[in-house]
């Protein structure tokens, strides 16, 4: 009946007013000034850069909103099958530059703001990063949203609107990491739309009573109810009208205060519920490959999952189809196990609210969900204590027990009498307390399961989910190698290279940015001296841009005639930043022993590190605190000594850049000659920055791990520098370390020498580093002593290769040329076609 009244009033008047916004420069300046006067309520003539950023953002947002509404309208009308990407993290970075480029309006806006007395660069620099993520997993989600919109796929993201994103990192003069909150919402966020009308109630605690009426139904009541309120973020595709949505939930108290406490004169008690509801979305957990059984984290997971499912189901119901057709219209991707509660939650809704039989409900669930695993490290696999789940989500715990019972019965039927197997596969791990294994629940509740690079997916199938492959069949388990968006990670961060590529391929970037395998056509130009000169000059200017950035932000002067060697990622033992810094010390000691004549042959090198370590308060709770923080301290103190040593400082210098972020990566990556991806074989699921560096013509120094392997397959082994033991050797080596340890002096004298110099206090603070050094001397779980010699040899090969600059630039060109496979467009289309079964839908 609503439809009959639509449109209200005179359609002609609506249509006339509804035309797309004009995008000539004078319309842009008008829109800008109009936002200054009205939205910002500021005097036009004395506007600062921040005000100019806000006005530009609001003006660009108008364009996005028109497309975003048309996209939504199209989806509603055509009712295609849609996919939803559930991720607890979306590491978006800045939006303005990306939106301008995707809309194809950057030049015009630059022109417009210049006429008004501003520089585009200064304006872009005012924006704070949206840093709602820890690292690779969160950034992958952001790349996938960009690709979904660019490929015109009906995909929405669902996440949480944290008030505080990943902490800001400060480095004290002694080299300690200090953490400060990241109040990213302090100066208004023009990129989100509060949707106060889109809200759902989410229950916690209370009690669940089975009806025992011959149905599996139960009633869950009591406890605490909080409100989930939607904030929508527009996700523009590249050169298309398609503008998708990222819906982030904020928690609010259901009622502002509790009337009973209020009447009793207990003011603090009255506002307390309000505090605890708001706490749910207040902060992103700075987890990295370690999980803690924290109630608030579990609350976040359920709050987000329940609100997202309620929203998805409401939208499905608007189509008017029976609930059994849900999987024909909805695919839900679980980004790691964090949203796994969606599985028992959908069961609960289907059974308790939709009155479906158990088997029907399970059929719907297992055709709706898809699970991506991002790690095989045991300490990173989520497990939740049964008592905590029973307390917080009593009905879900019942459902999990029921799922487990039926599941184990079917395992028993297939493998009669195999009690070990039942114990290994149970969703409930025995112990004190019992724990729910979320990766197992995610696997059995999903249509398909995948890892994020070939090697990693093989490891998933042969290690953590081996029993499940044997039980459910191999075809359920697949691989989708990760990808990165070439819009942000080439066009936006390296505009000169992007322009050179367009000129050379003689095709507009609108084409090759969406068909990245076209880069292959650059290959013949590796033989063209003039092209190589341009290529090298761009790299040089990117190095100068980075040096300028470091000069302005840290007051340090960097030698831009050196090779730039970069390792940027979360600090973690398995990523082996320690191996890198010990390699730097080795280089330093070698240089100290060189004659002046020998030194003449050495190419100068600048080594950059950046990355955050898990916060101290957090790490302290671990059984054996890892050493990431000492690693930062060592890097900073080695830098202090090396950068001040007149014998070596022209040939080797070292920088730890604080507060690594998406925006800092955008400056570092295009400037790199070589980047390091040196995890112990079999530990880095994929890695995605490896792809970003290579796309920008930086060469790769790495282990035979994660996506490094597939990069080497594409660009050719002669264009990468590989070292270290292979995955199948790792288990054996660890066994040797434990049962037949060889003293480090014997096993790896070069490494022993380096460690001894640190112990002797060459970089001060000797006692501080002892625990870190001892992890290598004893146990050495991450195999530094096994890989050190081949690492040093690989570094020497890099030096050698860099001396022949012509050949180096050829390698650089060939590397970029062969990176087409790693576009996140390819990855998202694999999910769309082989997993979700959704199709592109054009918005015209
Ligand atoms: C990363 N995982 C993988 N997890 O380490 C990396 O190899 C891969 O390329 C990337 O995912 C994308 O697939 C990762 O970033 C986290 O940050 C988790 C956050 C929550 C707790 C456990 C770690």
TrEMBL record:
EC number(s) on file: 2.4.1.1
Reaction catalyzed: [(1->4)-alpha-D-glucosyl](n) + phosphate = [(1->4)-alpha-D-glucosyl](n-1) + alpha-D-glucose 1-phosphate
Gene3D superfamilies recorded: Glycogen Phosphorylase B
Keywords, in A-Z order: Allosteric enzyme, Carbohydrate metabolism, Cytoplasm, Glycosyltransferase, Pyridoxal phosphate, Transferase
Family of this protein: Belongs to the glycogen phosphorylase family.
Pfam families linked to this entry: Phosphorylase
An MF annotation (GO) of this entry: pyridoxal phosphate binding
Cofactor dependence: pyridoxal 5'-phosphate
GO biological process, one term: glycogen catabolic process
Signal peptide: none
Organism: Mycena maculata
Entry's localization field: Cytoplasm
Entries under PANTHER family matching the protein: GLYCOGEN PHOSPHORYLASE (PTHR11468), GLYCOGEN PHOSPHORYLASE, LIVER FORM (PTHR11468:SF3)
Residue numbers bearing the N6-(pyridoxal phosphate)lysine modification: 692
Primary role: Allosteric enzyme that catalyzes the rate-limiting step in glycogen catabolism, the phosphorolytic cleavage of glycogen to produce glucose-1-phosphate, and plays a central role in maintaining cellular and organismal glucose homeostasis.
InterPro entries hit by this protein: Glycg_phsphrylas, Glyco_trans_35, Pyridoxal_P_attach_site
Cellular component per GO, a single term: cytoplasm
The protein's name in its UniProt record: Alpha-1,4 glucan phosphorylase
Superkingdom of this protein's organism: Eukaryota
Glycosyltransferase as UniProt keyword: yes
């Amino acid at each position: 009946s609503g439809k009959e009244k639509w449109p209200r009033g005179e359609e002609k008047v609506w249509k006339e007013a509804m035309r797309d916004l004009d995008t000539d420069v004078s319309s842009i300046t008008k829109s800008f000034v109009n936002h200054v006067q009205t939205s910002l309520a500021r005097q036009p003539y004395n506007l600062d850069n921040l005000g100019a950023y806000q006005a530009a953002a609001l003006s660009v947002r108008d364009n996005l909103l028109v497309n975003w509404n048309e996209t939504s309208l199209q989806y509603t009308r055509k009712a295609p099958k849609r996919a939803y990407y559930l991720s607890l993290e979306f590491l978006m970075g800045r939006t303005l530059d990306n939106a301008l480029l995707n809309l194809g309006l950057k030049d015009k806006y630059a022109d417009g703001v210049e006429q008004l007395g501003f520089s585009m660069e200064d304006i872009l620099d005012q924006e704070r990063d949206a840093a709602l993520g820890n690292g690779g997993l969160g950034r992958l989600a952001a790349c996938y949203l960009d690709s979904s919109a660019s490929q015109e796929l009906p995909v929405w993201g669902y996440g949480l609107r944290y008030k505080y994103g990943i902490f800001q990192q400060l480095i004290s003069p002694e080299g300690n990491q200090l953490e400060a909150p990241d109040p990213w919402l302090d100066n208004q966020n023009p990129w989100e739309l509060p949707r106060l009308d889109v809200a759902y109630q989410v229950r916690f605690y209370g009690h669940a009573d089975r009806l025992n009426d011959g149905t599996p139904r139960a009633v869950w009541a009591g406890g605490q109810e909080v409100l989930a309120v939607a904030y929508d973020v527009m996700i523009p595709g590249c050169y298309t009208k398609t503008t998708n949505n990222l819906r982030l939930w904020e928690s609010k108290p259901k009622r502002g205060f509790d009337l009973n406490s209020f009447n009793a004169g207990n003011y603090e008690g009255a506002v307390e519920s309000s505090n605890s509801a708001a706490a749910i979305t207040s902060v992103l957990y700075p987890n990295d490959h370690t999980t803690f059984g924290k109630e608030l984290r579990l609350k976040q997971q359920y709050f987000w999952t329940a609100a997202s499912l309620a929203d998805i189901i409401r939208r499905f119901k608007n189509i008017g189809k029976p609930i059994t057709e849900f999987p024909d219209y909805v695919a839900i991707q679980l980004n790691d196990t964090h949203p796994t509660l969606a599985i028992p939650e959908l069961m609960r809704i289907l059974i308790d609210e939709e009155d479906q039989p158990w088997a029907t409900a399970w059929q719907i669930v297992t055709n709706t969900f898809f699970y991506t695993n991002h790690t095989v490290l045991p300490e990173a696999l989520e497990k939740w204590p049964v008592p905590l789940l029973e307390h917080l989500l009593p009905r879900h715990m019942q459902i999990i027990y029921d799922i487990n019972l039926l599941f184990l019965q079917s395992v028993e039927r297939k493998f009669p009498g195999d009690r070990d197997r039942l114990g290994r596969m149970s969703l409930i791990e025995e112990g004190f307390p019992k724990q729910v294994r979320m990766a197992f629940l995610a696997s059995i509740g999903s249509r398909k399961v995948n890892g994020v690079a070939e090697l990693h997916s093989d490891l998933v199938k042969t290690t953590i989910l081996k029993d499940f492959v044997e039980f459910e069949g191999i075809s359920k388990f697949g691989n989708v190698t990760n990808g990165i968006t070439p819009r942000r990670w080439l066009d936006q961060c390296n505009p000169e290279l992007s322009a050179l590529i367009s000129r050379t391929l003689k095709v507009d970037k609108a084409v090759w940015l969406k068909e990245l395998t076209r880069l292959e056509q650059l290959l013949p130009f590796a033989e063209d001296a003039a092209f190589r000169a341009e290529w090298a000059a761009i790299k040089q200017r990117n190095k100068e841009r980075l040096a300028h950035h470091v000069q302005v932000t840290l007051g340090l002067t960097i030698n831009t005639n050196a090779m730039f060697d970069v390792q940027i990622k979360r600090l973690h033992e398995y990523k082996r930043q320690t191996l890198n810094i010990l390699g730097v010390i080795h280089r330093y000691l070698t240089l100290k022993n060189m004659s002046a004549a020998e030194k003449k042959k050495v190419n100068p090198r600048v080594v950059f590190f950046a990355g955050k370590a898990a916060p101290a308060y957090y790490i302290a709770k671990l059984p054996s605190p890892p050493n990431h923080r000492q690693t930062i301290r060592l890097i900073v103190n080695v830098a202090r000594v090396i950068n001040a040593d007149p014998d070596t400082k022209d040939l080797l210098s070292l920088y730890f850049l604080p507060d690594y972020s998406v925006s800092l990566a955008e400056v570092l990556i295009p400037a790199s000659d070589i980047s390091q991806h040196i995890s112990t074989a079999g530990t880095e699921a994929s890695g995605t920055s490896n792809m970003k560096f290579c796309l920008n013509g930086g060469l790769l120094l790495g282990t035979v791990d994660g996506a490094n392997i597939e990069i080497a397959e594409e660009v050719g082994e002669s264009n990468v520098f590989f070292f270290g033991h292979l995955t199948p050797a790792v288990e054996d080596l660890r066994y040797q370390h434990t049962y037949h340890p060889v003293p480090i002096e014997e096993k790896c004298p070069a490494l022993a020498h380096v460690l001894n110099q640190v112990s002797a206090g060459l970089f001060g603070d000797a006692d501080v580093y002892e625990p870190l050094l001892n992890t290598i001397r004893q146990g050495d779980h991450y195999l530094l002593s096994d890989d050190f010699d081949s690492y040093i040899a690989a570094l020497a090969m890099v030096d050698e290769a860099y001396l022949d600059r012509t050949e180096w630039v050829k390698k650089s060109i060939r590397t970029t040329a062969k990176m087409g496979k790693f576009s996140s467009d390819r990855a998202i289309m694999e999910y769309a076609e082989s997993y979700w079964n959704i199709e592109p839908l054009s918005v015209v």
